[in-house]
Design brief:
47% of the residues lie in helices and 15% in strands. The protein is of the alpha/beta class. It has a 7-stranded parallel β-sheet, sandwiched between helices. Helix 1 (15-26) packs across helix 9 (217-229). The longest helix has 28 residues, at 103-130.
Length: 264
């Protein structure tokens, strides 16, 4: 489905990013893996090569504009252009109450989401336009919709991602560039940490979803991204799609157990 396409994936060193990279490799895409951790980034690059894919890894801190622009340029220099941009990377901050979130935490979150997406999309657009169109997939979150506790900075930034997605979709449709977003939940690094720290978390998480299981990055999330990155979604732009086993329907209560209902 992605033969002769060049795709840049940020945060490709694990979790959903790794799952997307592996699926895209199977579909014939040439890949630029942008990842801050050189060990995990190189490891995924080797996996892609073992799958027969063409790939290059570039160490990238998406909080740094020069790094983001360099990743886009690497795609052009290595494979001759860029067709697909997947803005997956995110730098998490401590899970604390909103009143305890610092300006530094907010800045880190905005840099790794809003600014990273802004920089990569602006850098990618001319190259996509030169190739007659392109596909951009950004990452939204169910946390925005439920106002997830301890994620005030993340919720704020991800709400902004939806605005960025729809603004670009509206303006860049004239270049045949589609821009969509997904709100995924999957068994990535955060999920496995929560499982380790909270016995029974995996079972409770699965039970909350109408489909009764937690998502696998490669088998459950990557196919939805593939759809948005392929010609199958050629008449679709400005959309935000939940890929979460139906979790967005019941939602979930994110209030920490130690926080009382009323405080004065």
């Amino acid at each position: 489905m992605l033969d002769n396409k060049v795709a840049l994936i940020t945060g490709a060193g694990g979790g959903i990013g790794r799952g997307i990279a592996r699926r895209f490799a199977r579909e014939g895409a040439a890949l630029i893996l942008a990842e801050i951790d050189p060990v995990s980034g190189a490891a995924v690059a080797r996996e892609v090569e073992e799958l027969g894919g063409r790939v290059v890894f570039i160490k990238t801190d998406v909080c740094v504009k020069a790094d983001v622009v360099a990743a886009v340029q690497m795609a052009v220099d290595t494979f001759g252009g860029l067709d697909i941009l997947i803005n997956n990377a995110f730098a998490p901050t401590p899970n604390v109450l909103m009143e305890d979130k610092t300006d530094a935490m907010m800045a880190q979150t905005l840099n790794s989401t809003i600014w990273a997406g802004w920089w990569s999309m602006q850098a990618a657009m001319p190259h996509m336009r030169a190739r007659g169109g392109g596909k951009i997939v950004n990452f939204f979150s169910i946390d925005v919709e439920i106002g997830a506790w301890l994620h005030a900075d993340y919720n704020t930034a991800k709400a902004g991602i939806l605005g960025l997605t729809r603004s670009a979709a509206a303006e860049w449709g004239r270049f045949n560039i589609t821009v969509n977003a997904i709100a995924p939940t999957a068994m990535g690094a955060t999920f496995h940490k929560l499982c380790a720290d909270n016995p029974g978390f995996a079972e409770r998480s699965a039970a909350m979803r109408p489909l009764g299981r937690s998502g696998d990055p490669e088998m459950d999330i990557a196919p939805a991204v593939l759809f948005l990155a392929s010609d199958l979604s050629c008449y679709m732009t400005g959309e935000a799609i939940h890929v979460d086993g139906g979790l967005h329907m019941p939602g979930y209560n994110s209030r920490p157990a130690h926080v009382p209902v009323r405080e004065y």
